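Researcher: Here's a chain I'd like modeled. Treat it as a single chain, no partners, no ligands.
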Amino acid sequence: MGNYRQRLMAAGCPEVLVYKRKKGQTNHKAIKKSKKGEIHFLPDPPEGQSADISEEKRKTMLLEVQKRDLDLQHLDELMMATFSQRRKEIIGDEPLISELLDRWPALFNERQIKAEFCRIVTADLLQSFLDGLDALMSNLLEFYKAAVSSNRRLTLSSVMQCLNKEDTNQNRRTAALLGLPLFLSEDTSDIIRMCDVHGETLDVLMKGKRVGILIGHEGVLHDAFPHEIINVAVVVEEAVVLHEIRDVPTGFAMLMGTIYCLNLQYPHKMKYSFEFLQKVVMKMNPDQCSARVHGLRNKLLRFCL
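Model: Modeled as a single isolated chain. Structure tokens:
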């Protein structure tokens, strides 16, 4: 097997080269492997395309995004052609988000996040997320209601009270998502934040925020979540990478897509919630769950029966 890997390394296989030690390096590199059900974690470049050609296409992409009227089809083709180079940089070099914003500005919008996610896991981001959420939403809300009535999760009471005021499908989705970490006894303070769009500055709101979302509303917030949302933004390393997202469920879907596209780890304080969204809601790599997520999934299955 070792000889086989040497042959792959000599042939330039990216998934083997990423483990190679540099000359003089003594410490082991962190293991870079597919951990969230990725199909194309570190793909080979297109046949006949060299690194120079890929770099030229990246520079063409930089010029394209500066135009007033974007040619979206051309931009899609350039992003597809540079997919291998982009994944090699993100996984192998692990650059800061500021460097990625400079080198790959076209990636940071809803259209390209969905396209990149589809290239990585071969699944539609919004459809798989919303369809899976809708299938489990009613049962999750029943669990929340039972937890509140038995005084086991009093923090969920404010989320359920929002539904009593306005029980719409969009609010039910939002309540299911915002209530999930509370039901799993996780801390959301550093990942999910509500903010008045005319209140605090972004620097204050994003301070210490590694990965998460900002939910913007107007005026003083009296409930667990606002009924009228002005803007939802995705934040990575104290920088807004996506904004003007229309609602909270779409914001969560875009956050999941961003985590996959940038090869980020799930926030430690909400790791079970993100694992549940990936493996139970979106059904990606569902066979390997932690005990807490596996227990909740079994409860949902028994409830359905």
